[in-house]
Design a protein that fits this description.
YbaP-like, 13 helices, TraB/PrgY/GumN_fam, two-stranded antiparallel sheet
């Protein structure tokens, strides 16, 4: 299910040393919200922060993430992954796959140095996370180098940290998907990583350049086409819930910075398009 979120189109492009991902600014009479689309995993050598984001953080009253970016939330996510990501004792992942798909999985795991003894114990959604993480690591992508981690550390102490979801709510999104959907997206991710092992760098390059069309195709286009139910679950329904919090914030006053996965800001279901449709003044890419 991470294929559309984390894997891009075909040919490898090296990411530039200096990036300029887009920023959206939403204003009313007494409020301002700056929206920034995150890459959760980034190469450590990428200088990605736009000046507009630095300026917004310096003046912000609050900073919103998808889930809290603190040690307690990290521990909770690890506990939940153990509780919901493992198959029952005696069950194996490959027994849930067709023979050809199981063979592809074994070959990819070997290439990524991900032990099959570990992969076999995982539910399909967790196996997809594990393989994608291994692929990113081979391509110098570091979780601690992602946008949220850096902003959590860099934002001034006075800025209140908030979150749209709890770790339990986010984990339920993944663990609650049907096994058929999990297997379908796991197989798609395995095929994509097999055919295009350098796709991560291309995705980072599109994000770095603010190429909205390429990002929309890579991040949400595939999911919208191949798994409409997951697209609704992961993008449409979450954005609708988050809009309630954004509108409540705009009904008050002050300055807010929102940092969520880039897929939540793209296309007609993205947060900027939803806010424009409600009549708010939104500066930034269309």
């Amino acid at each position: 299910m991470f294929r559309s979120l984390l894997v891009a189109l075909a040919t490898l492009l090296a990411a530039p040393a200096l990036a300029a991902p887009p920023v959206w600014t939403v204003r009313d009479a007494d409020s301002e919200i700056v929206l920034f689309g995150s890459m959760h995993v980034l190469p450590k050598d990428l200088d990605w922060k736009p000046p507009a984001l630095d300026a917004a953080l310096a003046q912000a009253d609050d900073l919103w993430f998808e889930v809290p970016m603190d040690a307690a939330a990290d521990r909770r996510m690890q506990d939940l992954a153990g509780a919901y990501g493992l198959l029952p004792p005696g069950h194996t992942l490959t027994s849930r796959l067709k023979p050809r798909a199981a063979a592809r999985l074994r070959k990819l795991a070997d290439r990524l140095d991900a032990p099959m003894s570990e992969i076999e114990r995982l539910k399909p959604w967790m196996a997809e996370v594990r393989l994608t993480t291994a692929a990113f690591a081979q391509d110098q992508g570091l979780a601690e180098g992602g946008v949220e981690r850096r902003l959590q550390a860099a934002a001034p102490p006075k800025v209140v940290r908030k979150a749209f979801e709890t770790p339990d709510q986010q984990m339920a999104l993944f663990a609650g998907a049907t096994e058929a959907d999990q297997v379908r997206t796991l197989n798609a991710t395995v095929r994509q990583l097999e055919k295009d092992p350098g796709a991560y760098r291309r995705l980072v390059a599109a994000w770095s350049k603010g190429d909205q069309k390429a990002l929309e195709r890579a991040v949400v286009g595939g999911m919208r086409k191949s798994s409409p139910a997951l697209y609704r679950r992961f993008i449409v329904e979450r954005n609708a819930r988050w809009m309630d919090a954004l509108q409540a914030r705009l009904a008050g006053s002050g300055r807010t910075v929102v940092v969520v996965g880039a897929g939540h800001l793209l296309g007609p279901d993205g947060l900027p398009a939803r806010l424009r449709a409600l009549g708010y003044d939104v500066e930034g890419p269309r």
